[in-house]
Amino acid sequence: MTDLPADLTLTLPEWDAFLARLYERDDRLDLRAGDATYPESETVDAYVLSGHAEALQSAEVDGDLWGTLEDIEEEAGSEAQAWAKICAFYRDRGCVLLRVTGTEEPEEWIFSAALLRRLGLLD
């Protein structure tokens, strides 16, 4: 049995620094290289990053909680139950929950472990 990656936690400043290190070109998300310059169109913010997430719960970006729950063919009686079922579904498939602390509202994102490894957040 393969060990599942642990959840990750970033502070808000760490999250902002992480976003600043990313660029997107031709729908591929990657890390910026050293002192190279990148066009403004390749800048990654939370909205751009959301296109690479499996699911998310964010004050800044609408993650369509109920649509995601429907996609995984689950039902829930509350947003908290819905998010718990979504997290369980993706964790069972080797995805990682990334929490951002220091925000007024919950900021949680689910990514594939492979993507987080490529982006330097997992060993």
Structure description:
The protein is 33% helix and 22% strand. It is of the alpha+beta class. It has a four-stranded mixed sheet. A two-stranded antiparallel sheet has the order 2-3. Strand 2 (22-25) and strand 3 (28-31) form a beta hairpin. Helix 3 packs across helix 4. The chain is globular.
Shape estimate: globular
Strand order of the largest sheet: 1-5-6-4
Helical residue percent band: 25-40%
Largest sheet: 4 strands, mixed
The whole-number mean of residue pLDDT values reads 93
The succession of helices and strands, N to C, reads EHEEHEHHEEH
The residue ranges in which pLDDT falls below 50 over 5 or more consecutive positions are none
What value does the Rg take, in angstroms? 15 Å
Number-wise, the strands total: 6
Number of helices: 5
Separation, N- and C-terminal Cα atoms: 18 Å
- SS class: alpha+beta
Oligomer: single chain
Strand share of the residues?
A: 15-25%
Summarize the structure.
The chain has 123 residues and is an alpha+beta fold.
List keywords for this structure.
single chain, 123 residues, alpha+beta, four-stranded mixed sheet, 22% strand, globular
List strands and helices in order, with pairings.
Layout: E1 8-11, H1 12-20, E2 22-25, E3 28-31, H2 46-50, E4 55-57, H3 65-71, H4 79-91, E5 95-101, E6 108-112, H5 113-118
Parallel strand pairs: 1-5
Antiparallel strand pairs: 2-3, 4-6, 5-6
Helix pairs in contact: 3-4
